[in-house]
């Protein structure tokens, strides 16, 4: 029996498809220029490439020799983001080091190319570098300091979200594009389906910007443009359970696999590989890639194999026509005769603002409008004080916000220092959020224990306050365990396996989670 | 468990026993029940019967080496010792031939064989109305989710509801399980809790509390609650620290001392002397330096991966960390170690030390490595006890069996059971 589908109709000046850094950046830029904007994503914000990269805010040093234009773009954007999005950035600084396996003279090419591209650099003695980073390979032969930093994509996407909504924009997360509307040559918006309710929404938009990254080809095809070929460049990253380094460390050589370690929040991330996949949703992890990353990591930090590997995941870079990682703007009017539709894809998170600017500028040209871009100067919400994020801030926040009630001050997640009242606040802020959304927003269970106790507590609390019913709480718990497992089993050895086995004894032996009643999950 | 069980059994027959332990073992992380076998091809009703069949169809399983009759004997033995132990009249109830179904801290009915008397009233096979009661602010116990799941698990044969009462403790300190249990050590606290319960529970309802009913006098606390509320009371095992697990550990430690055995903690094995087939000396590192123990027998009870008795390195090689015994059951290089789904069985889960019927460790050719070394507990290959709910059963029965084998061998050899043994447990 079919019930009549209720279709909601919405209108906007601009529809942005894709809620990664690029799409959110486009919606932010367009909102600032006065366009009434709707941003849509099939999942939560930053669940695609932006949520799965290694956290590096490039100085450009990585590209100075191989891709000078990209290097200059990076340093310019690096400076801009430090100005407008300081709270999302930890000013770790960066090092390029020449290991015994690297060509000594590349360092000279590196210095010259930095000067040519405008990337600030200074050569350190190896003693200075090792004093700064004691775990570095003592056999390094050269070291250079550059202004790399660590940038938190979740903080960034939340800041952009706030900025967009404060300027009248609207976000529709968990909405999938099921059709792109065409009226002759023009794209006039899209039909969306709310993945949670099944409801369909018909969005009529004056202009549509496709910022769906590795999925951009799929979205273009919905618009009738079949030849936008995005090759998913899959790469894995491994988070080690503490900060082996406090500075971004790069190998001073032509870009290769596994040549970066980024300290981000409480972990350090080693990455990455580059394997062309068929499907941007194929996030499987091959064992040999894991071994490759661990071996590569040993070159920079000897003994890395004895440190605890916390989690492994894959991210997919959008590679347009399998060439460089520079970003690509496709004006479909010029290219395909389809108006009011452009695609912006490729690139790296460091240049998201620039990509967004180019896209919105291209839109303005097509519309014949002259509205200047303001994102170079406009500070993102949360970064008004212009202060960088510091790791010690968590403890300060915790101590300042104690409200004196032990029950609500009690820590739900000890590793990430999340008290109960923050969990309850997150539920009030986002009444339709599931445990997974809240977990990502608070970073619950993302510390060294990987959710051993806190997910059980969070599920119990959410059920108790009526936010989740029993069947949903059970599913959420099991889904969390399965999801966590995907990112752990390929790197499960040493103390991490020991921790996991302890969790097995708790979840299976003590709680018997496997035999929860009526689970809707298989 | 396995080391202490072996140590007590040997010491009570007159052997000179040293139990050398790195930490406190895993009892304080466990529910405190003795689970013999909960799941085989489905839910198990009669563990001993099921173990008999398991031994036949799965000869690599530890129970196949131990034997069902020895499992039953070990359970009876431990039950009797606890009943006469330091927490008496606190005792364990239940039969090796029958599984109860007890609620977990998620509200799942879990099969268990021998359980503390303080838990037995929670047997879901005969419960109908349950009030799951939590202490406000205790963060590792969620009565509403437990009650919801208990009701649904029973197909509505059980009506469970949830309540919260104020804990009998100063609220400026977080009410964790150990704090609450120590409060309930004090006379008068149980009566105070009962006074909070009585107005809010219904007549004839089963009261299910988190397992915090005292470390020093669980029988007294439990009996007081039942008497003053007029309702049956049971405790539900919580996340660590586990109070019933701690009670069991303390009981076993006391029984060992009373039997004349010695327990050394903070000790790590650094080497053995002997050969070609007999170990005659074990060297351990303690905080003051190195010590050596001459011995005629060794029981290796250092546990599995969770205890540090087995370690997997980043090159996917596993080693046994005390004596360097051969580890069996490791998947070949290139073969999967883990399934991609968490709740499935995992090939590497069954890796451990393979033994023969006399619990002697076997090398890669299936031959005995040592004549006078026996292996007990979670180090044994062939099972994933957290999945089949057999952890304490394997630990207890293998430790007991190891002791019996040693006693038997000594009776044959010398006519006296005077043997020095070293059992190592690593937490």
Please describe what this structure looks like.
The complex is a heterodimer of chains A (522) and B (427). With 522 residues, chain A is α+β, with helices and mostly antiparallel strands. Helices cover 34% and strands 23% of the residues of chain A. In chain A, the strands form 4 sheets. In chain A, strands 5, 6, 7, 13, 14, 15, 16, 17 and 18 form a 9-stranded mixed beta sheet that branches. In chain A, a hairpin with a 2-residue loop joins strand 10 and strand 11. In chain A, helix 1 packs across helix 9, helix 2 crosses helix 3 (106-117) and helix 14 (454-464) runs antiparallel to helix 15. Chain B is of the alpha/beta class and 427 residues long. Chain B has 2 domains: 2-84 and 247-425, 3-Layer(bba) Sandwich (FAD/NAD(P)-binding domain), CATH 3.50.50; 123-231. Helix content of chain B is 31%, strand content 20%. Chain B has 12 helices and 18 strands. In chain B, a hairpin with a 4-residue loop joins strand 11 (268-274) and strand 12 (279-286). Chain B is globular. Chains A and B meet through helix 14, helix 15 and helix 16 of A and helix 6 and helix 11 of B.
Query: In CATH's first tier, which class of the largest domain in chain A applies?
Result: Alpha Beta
Biggest interface found: A-B, 51 and 51 residues
CATH class of the largest domain in chain B: Alpha Beta
Classify the secondary structure makeup of chain B into a structural class.
alpha/beta
Q: Which percent band covers the strand fraction of chain B?
A: 15-25%
Compute the gyration radius of chain B: what is it?
A: 22 Å
Strand order of the largest sheet of chain B: 10-1-18-14-17
Alpha-beta classification of chain A:
alpha+beta
Q: What portion of residues of chain A belong to β-strands?
A: 15-25%
Largest sheet of chain B: 5 strands, parallel
Calculate Rg of chain A over CA atoms.
Answer: 23 Å
Please report the total strand number of chain B as a whole number: 18
